[in-house]
Amino acid sequence: MASITDKIELFINELMNNSNSIQIKRNELANLFNCAPSQINYVLMTRFTIDRGYYIDSKKGGGGYVQITKISSDKKKYIKSLIYERIGEEISYNAAKEVIKSLEKINILTERESKIILYSIEDKVLCIPISELKDKLRANILQNIVIGLLHIDESA
After folding, report:
1. How many whole angstroms separate alpha carbon 107 and alpha carbon 144?
2. For FRET with 116, which of 27, 35, 84, 126 sits at 20 to 30 Å CA-CA?
3. Among residues 20, 46, 70, which one ends one of the domains?
4. What's the DSSP call for residue 70?
């Protein structure tokens, strides 16, 4: 017998059969499956991840929703390699600069956007005295920027 998480995943996948992007209300889905909203969060965070080809965006509160977007396979491969191979768990400023410049070179970023990102991940901005922690924070910021760019591009 399938677990509740399997059933929720199957339901969401069926909703996505006709669309690359869906918007759902977490509480409504929880009511439908007679479970806590945290169970829905668990399914979203474990079954609809970047590595599985999905981008999740959510808005909390009364009119809140969760938007799930399928990422095209070419972009998915590129983004996964960028996030996991080039950025990784930590990245120096100079290595991050190379990643950003490569995104600019293939017209994913404009020169202006590149400069803004570079300014935001400089060592002096990341006010942490331990270098390794700066590199980890920089990697997290850069990964989220890349994921955000992908989402913006997919929804355009």
Report:
1. 18
2. 84
3. 70
4. E
